[in-house]
Design brief:
By secondary structure, the protein is an all-alpha fold. The chain folds into two domains: about 1-190, Growth Hormone, Chain: A; about 205-413, MFS general substrate transporter like domains (Growth Hormone, Chain: A, Up-down Bundle). It has 17 helices and no strands. It has helices at about 10-30, 35-40, 45-75, 75-95, 100-115, 120-130, 135-150, 155-165, 165-185, 210-215, 220-250, 255-285, 290-310, 315-335, 335-340, 350-375, 380-410.
Length: about 425
Amino acid sequence: MSSSPPVTLQAWITVGLLWLTGCVNYIDRLMITTMRGSIKEAIPMTEAQFGLLTSVVLVIYGACSPFAGYFADRFNRSRVIVITLIAWSVVTLLTAYVTTYEQLLASRALLALAQVACVPASVALVVEYHRGTTRSLASGLLLSGAMAGAALAGFGGWLAEGRGWAFAFKLLGLVGLGYALVLLLVLRDPPVTDAAGKDRAAAEPVRLSEAFRSLFSSRDYLVMLVFSCVLGVVGWSVIGWMPTYIKEHYRLAQGEAGMATTVCLNAAALLGLIGGGVWADRWSRTRESARFLVPIIGLCVAAPAVLLLTNAPTLAFALGGLAVYGAARYVADANLMPMLCLLVDPRYRATSWGIMSFFSAIVGGLGIYAGGLLRDAQVDISRIFQFAAINLVVAAGLIAYVNRRRLLRAAPR
């Protein structure tokens, strides 16, 4: 293996800064789901209307992701991140002053538009700084910020109970604006004139049509798109239906089931993101295919863990299976951008991530809906997780196929 370029202090500072950015991103996006009672008391709405407040974010975020990725490839990524942080913090702050349901729904739509470019720009910026045997760990650490944000979003409900629902939006909006000033002073793209210039060809401006043509003409990338869709169905199905399964199967209260599954899954996902990154980085020192092999192994471990959930005799066994699934499945997420770095044109990394986010969100949403249809048809909810286990094996096979194609191309003729 060739020697890796040295990793600077700025590279790790960038990961830390963007970890906190991702954490704030998810807190601002998800905290509304934890303050249902307070919001409905202040702004009358039906249960369907309250659900739409989250659905509109998912739909707009998914639809705009490919173009947001292109935007992050076309312009200075650190500035894109700062601008998006300012934009969604302003929207979060203004949300505290809405008085009607229509205004609240509009603010949620604006939040999705403001946030959508942040993650593609962040993952692409991190892999520009980490180009050697720290790339997977850096990617995993970055994405763990979103998991931490999802867990901390529960404080929104706590603040709403003590200070009113608007207080949380005011506080987080002001925090975001203050942190944007810090990023403006500290966050920078790596210089394109150094060794990183070999990875990112910045001399020519990125064009949307060329980016789409390059990505959609690559068989490897198309297979990775299918992979992201399959994994999206699994991820959203588990997130959407696991609390219901735990509640009904083990006769828990709604709050107990939700807390048990959320804490268990997010804690395990954090371990998977970090552990999967460390594992792939260490193995990549002697084998470049480690970026592909580690996710394959993780997904093959996650599949029987999901099956364990459907046959667990006790709650402890079920939560144990959920923890193993979370840790093993999110190993793949830690290595997703490192895998893309070996497959796509360096100029289109953020665009490739954005397109994958689009398809994953759409297919994942359809997967949750399909689960509801099965429930209405009186199909046992455990069937959803059995189907998820099959999809995990399919996802591992898709990565193995792409890796084999890479090895065949690299083999001497």
